[in-house]
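Two proteins follow. First one:
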Amino acid sequence: MKQSYGRLPLYMLQPKALINFAAQTIDFASQTLGYRDPSATSNLTRSDSDREKDEQSGLDIYSLNEVSEHDSYNDCWIILYDKVFDVTQFLLEHPGGEDVIMEHAGRDATISFRTVGHSVPALQALDEYLVGILPDCERVYTGSGPCQWNTL
């Protein structure tokens, strides 16, 4: 089956036109399958100036939906113990490799993080990447349980 782009068959297209055709095809397929463009700004994200602050910690509040939008190598956020971390700059420095973190990009990584048994310096280094906290209604590690951040 011969594919054409306008009046010309694909094998006769100039490279620039062929790349344009490929980009349009990928764009159409992505929209049809429901994929989103990670570089596109979302209407769910609020600007930092009107972002709510947590009363106890004073940190910016980010919902799970907002964190889930940061799931690429260029923009990687994870959640650990209800706190939100932007680990984009740390990906290549991670001793276990960036793929370990990318498995949990945009999601909660607490169980995996806890299972590995990170050192105290690793826990202290997290402060550098802290950007916010989940809202009260979406927190898992709250209350007086043994998984509190301050018990680490």
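Second one, unrelated to the first:
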Amino acid sequence: MTAAPTPPTLALWKRLSGLPGGHKVFSTAIALRVPYFSTVLPTVRVLEPGRCEVTAPKWFGVYNHIRTFHAIAACNLAEIAMGMLAEATVPVTHRWLPKGMTVHYQAKAETGLRAVAELGEIPEFGTDGMDLPVPFTVYDKRGESVVTGEITIWVTPKK
């Protein structure tokens, strides 16, 4: 039995992440592919099937009216982590689309942030469409949880 092909995003990560500046090059590439991601200046730190960590600095482009990290900018960071996890996890024979997002704001985000999306286990991707809930937590630089939630994606075989 032959191994399933590596998803292209994961293959690019594996090529770049070990190189000097590779995390930044990879993160710039994803921001070019999905320009809205660039609003939080993301840097992918960890990418593997079932897990992704992305950081973003606190800068004036993500400020809200009280100069903390805007809640929706934190959601954008969580969506980047989920999207990269999906790209690294969903087989090349399938496609995925975000379907819904549940968010719980835990505390003010007064620093740069780190979003972690992680699956407890990777499901079998079959011939039927499936909802796949992807839990996430967004942490501040002290390691405190500031946002938690879940993004549900719809996964189907490619036609």
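SUMMARY FIELD: The chain is about 25% helix and 35% strand. The domain at 8-157 is CATH 3.10.129.10 (Thiol Ester Dehydrase; Chain A).
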